[in-house]
Design a protein that fits this description.
12 helices, 7-stranded mixed beta sheet, transport, 384 residues, amino-acid transport, Leu-bd, 5-stranded parallel beta sheet, Leu_Ile_Val-bd, globular, alpha/beta, Peripla_BP_I
């Protein structure tokens, strides 16, 4: 009788667990200076969860989002992650910014819970990385390399200047561009960084105008991209190519904020609604609805793919045990509307998804993919 009662109780407990929810943890910036990106991430998470639950959930469970706000602050991100770990989530996705994500990845490795990176691009997050960190999105060099590959194929361009923000991402772009441009046959006429809070870029831009470069490359904080672009037009800086490396330039708000001053800008990114991945247009529509009609950025699509990868790993693991989920993540092979997701160790990177860099150009107020040729939906238009 006692054995029968134990069997019944175990069956009830198993049924209850199956009928419960699978909590996927996420840490992102819902407030603070990265809040715009955090909103994009949250939209991507929720669209993925809605899609998964519409198909019946995972292993008999509905998926739920356990999201914590890092307030754009590293210490708060670590506290948020600790809270999620104590809640026994099997995996955490986060954060937006590289400066927050790097220490977050180190913490998650110490507590042996897998972290999926959706948007942070600092090379050192996965190079060398660790066994518990998996990056769905690209590393920063993909943006710069894809741009310079495009410039190498564009005849008549010989000189360049570079201006980047003085943060981890900006410094990475500056380092890559400084190395890759000369190898592509360019002479660098100027290379500068600026600190957050600078509002008047005109002295720098006037200097660049005097140098008359063929190419101008920017990597900027979100809040600076629009001001910088407007001041380019104001001072009459007219290179044949002017490019923004992702970040604030890749946001839909850049198009509305900079308006006609942005026309002709090249913007590097890794997802655009016109990409040739199956389901991309449907994903764009669903993300836009999740954002209450606002235009989604690549950050929302990256976060959508990260959530799919997290849930897929739990499903294949057949368990919410973090170690089993980590092992399953290493075997990921997904096709998504963001693009393929497969974590590999190559070229010094650990658990890094290989992502194709896109070159878009602002044409008639929208981002049009112009490179690489296999992905192009339009043609590059050079300045005169």
């Amino acid at each position: 009788m006692k054995r029968c009662l134990t069997t019944v109780l175990l069956a009830v407990a198993t049924t209850a667990a199956a009928q419960g929810t699978l909590q996927i943890g996420a840490v992102t910036s819902l407030s603070g200076r990265f809040a715009t990106f955090g909103q994009m991430q949250q939209a991507g998470f929720r669209v993925a969860i809605d899609e998964i639950n519409a198909r019946g959930g995972v292993n008999g469970q509905k998926v739920a989002l356990a999201i914590e706000d890092d307030a754009s602050d590293t210490n708060k991100a670590l506290s948020a992650a600790e809270k999620l770990v104590n809640q026994k989530v099997p995996v955490v996705i986060g954060a937006y910014a590289s400066g927050i994500t790097k220490p977050l990845s180190q913490y998650m490795a110490r507590v042996k819970v897998p972290l999926i990176v959706a948007t942070a691009v600092d090379e050192t997050i996965t190079k060398p990385g660790n066994a518990y960190t998996f990056r769905v999105n690209n590393q920063s060099s993909v943006y710069t390399r894809s741009l310079i590959d495009q410039l190498r194929k564009t005849p008549g361009l010989k000189t360049a200047v570079i201006l980047t923000s003085n943060d981890a991402f900006g410094k990475s772009v500056l380092t890559d561009a400084t190395k890759l441009l000369p190898a592509a046959g360019y002479t660098i006429l100027g290379r500068d960084t600026y600190d957050q809070g600078l509002t008047d870029f005109r002295p720098l831009l006037n200097r660049y105008r005097g140098q008359n470069p063929d190419v101008v490359i920017f990597a900027s904080y979100e809040q600076d991209a629009v001001a910088l672009t407007k001041q380019v037009k104001e001072v009459g800086l007219k290179p044949r190519v002017i490019a923004g490396i992702a970040t604030g330039f890749a946001l839909p708000a850049f198009l509305t904020g900079a308006a006609d001053a942005a026309e002709g800008f090249l913007v590097t990114m890794v997802w655009n609604p016109d990409v040739r991945y199956p389901g991309a247009q449907s994903l764009y529509t669903r993300l836009k609805a999740a954002l209450n009609g606002a235009e989604p950025s690549q950050h929302a699509a990256q976060s959508y793919a990260a959530m799919l990868a997290a849930v897929d790993a739990v499903k294949r693991a057949g368990s919410s045990d973090p170690e089993k989920v980590r092992s399953a993540l290493a075997q990921t092979n997904l096709k998504t509307a963001f693009g393929p997701v497969t974590f590999r160790t190559y070229g010094g990177y650990t658990n890094q998804n290989s992502v194709v860099g896109l070159i878009t150009q602002v044409q008639n107020g929208r981002f049009v993919t112009v490179g690489p040729a296999s992905a192009a939906r339009g043609k590059l238009i050079l300045g005169k």
